[in-house]
Every structure is written in structure tokens, then in C-alpha cells.
Amino acid sequence: MTKDIEQKVSQLLEKMTLAEKVGQLQQCGPSIVGAFGVDFEELVNMVFDGRISKEKFQEMMSSSSIDLHEDDLRAGKVGSYNGISDAKTANYLQKIAIEETRLGIPLLFGYDVIHGYRTIFPIPLAESCAWDPELWEKTARVSAVEATAGGNHMTFAPMIDVSKDARWGRVSESPGEDTYLTSRYGVAKIRGFQGNDLSENDAMAACIKHFAAYGAAEAGRDYNRVDMSMQRLCEEYLPPFEASVKAGARAVMPAFNDINGIPCTVNEWLLQDVLRKQWGFNGMTISDANAIAECVDHGIVADRAEAAMRALRAGVDMDMTSNCYVEHVEELVDSGKLEISVLDQAVGNILRLKFELGLFDRPYQTDENREKNEMLKPEYRELAREAAVKSMVLLKNDGVLPLTEDVKLGIVGALADNRGEMTGAWAIKADSNDCLSIVDACQAEKLPHFYTAGIIDSEDGSFVDDQSVAELAYASDVIVAVVGESKVESGEAASRAEINLPLIQLKLLEQLYKTGKPVVVVLFNGRPLAIPSVQQQAAAILEAWHPGVEAGNAVLDILYGKVNPSGKLTTTFPYATGQCPIYYSHINTGRPAGRGKFTSKYLDTPIEPVYPFGYGLSYTTYTYSDLYVQIGKEELLVSINVENSGVVDGEEIVQCYFRNKVGTRVRPVRELAAFTRVKLQAGERQMVQLHVPISKFGYYDWDMSVVVDNGEYEIFVGGNTVEGLSTKIEL
Ligand code: BGC
């Protein structure tokens, strides 16, 4: 099969003209022109700035003013599209490619299916808190079924940027701060998106991104420089990409940022030496949007022609929307500046993927009928509810939760009744009418409740006056304050220099605490927030993130204890923004805090986070005992008894960490080595076994050789990074 494809690729390459080859490298997006007179990018800016509504955007996108670059397509100058949102348009364009171009090479349609297509699941940061690879795979499968029905062949996901800095808006798209967890997430998502056979109509190629270290942007500011040791890059940021390539990811997107002065888009070491030579990747690479042209702004090339040459040489096969390749590659080859073999390599990688997807045999893999029937099926909604419930993290509970159904709820905060806000930042195909808000869910369940809109965010805040607060308190037994971030406050280009709740929301909470009624805070947000005062004063806190279409039902499932919460944080909640980046796997320093004045700490802020990595409560308690580690040749077998010592059934996420006590280079105080979810009925006890390959202890020495130190290691097992049992072993 593979040999067969390779043969077909070379045969086709032989038939292609230079211009046709260059055409295959080009990905365009639909441009909005004509009556509106604005291009697509500007339009997106307008949505984010609030100059036009999302509804208006959708109306414009589906209007006749979209330029689909049909003339270019007919001339063989387009190999792929990004962002075609329906089967009809996709098939229309595909027909032009097949019937009206000389060689009839099918188009590849790419789309950002980040956490769902029509059925919107929780944002990735949320879903990672489920610590559930099976779930991650299932939600990706559903997303692929829907997205392929909508005409797409490739998703720009999973995003597997290790993200340790909560100021960075794109933490919302990531599976959090841990390298190993991110690797597991990436592998599961690839299985889900790509299915068992990429040539099936409902399988889509996974494009892992952003290669690499985008999550380490200096000061948490999006697109900013990344400057770090090679050791750190290879130990903390590259492993999820390596694991995902080994799991079969068929596409890779280089990141916008530079690493140590070389933008990833022109980084030959990264894209050739590491990706292709070391890891054996033979799929397709695609630049990030406009990233090739942006190399001029980086100051690494003089002009767009040089940008095209450097990016192609470095190994960027397809140009996402910068047009540098279509403008310059023919001339670069003709003038002898660029060898044709470099171009052939890139075209070959693109054609290979098109063959693997079965596009030459079946260029039309969907139709409007399939599209209509595949979206938002009841079982998809059910899965979205399960995913949302498993993603939510109970951060505090003084006993007020779970609620009983006769409790009168006083709900406050506009996010409690805003369906469109439930989807999160990356849900292009979302329809807000599909979403259930908390108020919707209360109404559907006929629960006694009283609702006051109040605030949505700092700008748009309508102050809740004392009178309304008094009425709310009078009408209710328990207040549910729904606060956090609106969805545009996280995601791309949404870094924040202060990650606390806006003042207006904090003020509202102060008013509510004063009423004396228990205040349950429900947070909808896309990043960790610095909320020490909420931790101190709220009766309970539920981190609900941006949960997707089943938001309202999922929140009620937890508040009323229909499901025992089980989510655990995959990202550290700081005490103050100034602690960022703060993460559990830090090194000790020579002067750990807690030993007096001249130690590594702050004068004005504790050194600890408010909520640590791995943390999350439930309505029961789990007791750990009898930790035992058996050392084998290849792996450690870690055994522990876990007991549900409370009175309700639940699921516990058992986490295993290690610490290398004396390293060749200094090592983190803890590193995640394994985890599993266990179902335990009230009173039940289970022996949990975790396998930790010895290779996990490997890391890079000063000379970049991998070492596994002999000597003492500490093994920790528990329900988070600060509690549990530990034991020492010698390797
Ligand atoms: C983002 C990518 C995304 C691409 C295409 C870029 O701005 O960085 O993550 O896949 O747009 O929409």
C-alpha cells in the first residue's frame, strides 16, 4: 500500500509542470470582498473587536460576497483551502479541481476543529482535566465524523503546546502544563481524528501544532520570542510532538515564534533534522497563517522571496495564506536559486497525504445529505455532557454542595444565561442555539431559581445594585455566582497581563458574601485565574471552564451531585499574576523557600499556588495506602491501594510522580510518570497498578546525550501534587 502510494506520487510528479507543482503548495482561505469591501482577516478582527457580531460574520461568510479564488483554482494555482464551512461549497470547489484543471488533482480542505465541529465539547484545557485518554479519543472521533461530513479532510489539531504560563491566552487550547499528559492527549486525539484508516470518509488527518515551544512565549505575550536551553526544549516541549508523530500524525504546523533566534517557519534543524530525520516523519507540513511572510517582520529574511526560499528549504511544504510560494517559487527555481528537488519533496509530501486520504479515488467524500444527518446527534450531545462533567474541577466545597432539589437558587451573572459564551474561543461552526446555559437547564429541570443577569465582563458590565442583591439573597437559600472570562478573553491573541477576575466581578462577589447566604462560585474561563480572595470567601467553587453545548446540564449534574465531580487541574492556579509562569515541575534552586530571608520567594506573595496541579475535590474521600514499587529491568511496577472512604460512589484520578534526587543536571521536584482513572463504589478498595518505563527517567546532560542516572529516586502516588504517599527507590 505504502509502496503503491510512493509510486503514484512519483508518477504524478513526473507529469506536473513547474507551475502545477507550485500550485499544490498553496492554501487559500475564502476572502470576503465586494459589497463589504473587507478581506477575511480584517473581518475576523472585526468580530474580535466587537465591531460586528458573530451572527453578522456568519451571514457574511455565507453570502455571495465570498471570493473563493476560483480563477486561481482553475489555473492550477490552489492545492488546498482553509475554512470552507460546508459540504456544498467544498464539493463545488472540488469539482472544479477534478474537472477543470489539467491533471485533476483533488483539493485538500483544512479546518480548525479544535474542540468540536458542530457538537462543541469543552475547550482542550478543560478536557485535559478529565485525565481520560479514552474520552479524548471519543470526542475527537465525533469531531472528525462531523467535520468530514462538512467537507473537511484535515484538522489543525491537536494543539500540543506545553503551556506553563497562564498569561498566554492560548493555554485554553492546550492540554495544560505537563509534558507527559500533553503527550497522552496528543496521541489519543490523533487516534480519534484519524480513525483506523485514513482513507475512510469519516477520517481526517491530524495536524499537530505549533511546532515548537509556542507555549513558552516570553512574558506570556502571544507570538513572542522563545529563548531556552536545548535541554529544556528537548525534555519539556518536544516530547508531545515526538509521541504524536510516532502515533501517526500526518501533518505538522510550525509555530509562529522563533526559538533561540530562528523562527520555526525557517528552522531547518527543527523541521528536517528533528522531525524528518530523527523521528522519521513523512507526512505534510503547513505553515501557520501568513507565517512565511511574517519572517520578514521577524527580521530573518530580507523579503518575501527569501522568505519563500528559506521556508521551503527548511521543510515547510504548504503555505497557509501568505502567497509567498505562489508569488516566488517558480522564479526561484527558474533562476537556479532553488533546486527543483526541494520543491518536489514538498509537493510529494502533499500528494502523499491526498493519496492516503483516498482523495484521488473518492474526491467527494461527503454530500449535503450526509452533512445534515451527521451533526449534533443525541449521542454526541450525551458525550459532550460526559466530557463537560468530567472536565469540571471542584476547587472548594465547605459542605454546601451537592445541593438538594428543594434548595432555592439565586443565580447571578450574565454568563449564567449566555448560550454563545459557553463554546469557548475556537468553535467556528458553533451555533449558540445548540448550547444550554445554566438558566436554560434550571428551567428545563423546573428547579426553584431566581435569576439576575448582572455582569459579563469588565467592559460590558452592568453593575448589580444593592437592591437587586438584597432581592436575590432574600429569594434564595444558596447563591450561585457565575463569573469568569468571556470567550474572547482567552485563545489566540488574548494574552492578559493580569489574570485575576475583573474588579467589577470581585465587587459583585463581595456584595454577595455580605448577604450571609452561601455563595457557590461557578467559573467559566479559558485559563487559570488568580483568585485567592474567592478561595477564602466562597462556600464552594466549581471550575467549569468553557464547557461546550451541554454547559448548563453539566454544571447542574455536578451542583446537584447527579455525578460526583472527578476532574483534576492540569494547570496550576497562581496566587497572583506575578508568579507566572508557575508550574509544579519546577526545580528546587539552591535556596528553596521556607528557610528564612535569603531564599527563593516573593516579599508580597506566597510562593505556593492557590490550587496546585493535579488538584480537584469530589463528594467523597479517597484513602491511599500500601505503596509498593517493584523494580524491573525495563519498568517500575507501582502498586497502591486506593479506597473510597466516603459514602458516595466516585472516580479518582490516581497520579504517580517521581523525583530524581541527585542528577547530572538539576531535576524537577516532581515529574508526572503515570496516571489512571479508577471507579470506586463507596467503601470499595482497589489495588491500582501503574507501569513506569525506566526510560521515563531519561533526560539530557550538558552535551545533549540522554542519561538515566543511577541512585536515589522518590516515587509519589496520590490524588494531586501535594498529598499522597511516597517511597524511595535506588536505581
Ligand atoms: C493559528 C492556528 C490556526 C490557523 C488557521 C492561526 O492564526 O495560530 O492555530 O490553525 O490560524 O486558522
What does this structure look like?
Helix content is 32%, strand content 18%. The chain is of the alpha/beta class. Helix 21 links the parallel strand 16 and strand 17. The longest helix has 17 residues. It is globular and about 75 Å long. The structure holds beta-D-glucopyranose. Beta-D-glucopyranose (BGC) binds next to loops.
Level of helix content? 25-40%
Count helical runs. 23
The outline comes out as globular
Which range does the strand content fall in? Answer: 15-25%
Radius of gyration: 26 Å
User: Which strand order do you get reading across the main beta sheet?
Assistant: 11-8-7-6-5-4-1-12
pLDDT below 50 for ≥5 consecutive residues: which ranges?
A: none
Ligands present? beta-D-glucopyranose
Rounded mean pLDDT is: 94
Largest sheet: 8 strands, parallel
Terminal CA distance reads 45 Å
Label this structure with key terms:
731 residues, 8-stranded parallel β-sheet, globular, binds beta-D-glucopyranose
Could you provide a short overview of the structure?
The chain has 731 residues and is an alpha/beta fold. The protein has 23 helices and 27 strands.
Question: What's the structural blueprint in terms of helices and strands?
Answer:
Elements: H1 2-15, H2 18-24, E1 26-28, E2 31-32, H3 40-49, H4 54-61, E3 66-67, H5 70-74, E4 80-82, H6 87-100, E5 108-111, H7 124-128, H8 133-149, E6 154-155, H9 179-194, E7 205-211, H10 230-237, H11 239-246, E8 251-254, E9 258-259, E10 262-263, H12 268-278, E11 284-285, H13 291-298, H14 304-314, E12 319-320, H15 324-334, H16 340-356, H17 368-374, H18 378-391, E13 393-397, E14 409-412, H19 438-444, E15 449-452, H20 466-475, E16 478-484, H21 503-514, E17 519-524, H22 532-537, E18 540-543, H23 551-559, E19 622-631, E20 635-644, E21 650-660, E22 671-680, E23 685-693, E24 699-700, E25 706-707, E26 712-718, E27 725-730
Parallel strand pairs: 1-4, 1-12, 4-5, 5-6, 6-7, 7-8, 8-11, 14-15, 14-16, 16-17, 17-18
Antiparallel strand pairs: 2-3, 9-10, 13-18, 19-20, 20-23, 21-22, 21-26, 24-25, 26-27
The structure holds beta-D-glucopyranose (BGC).
Beta-D-glucopyranose binds at residues 82, 112, 156, 209, 288-289, 492.
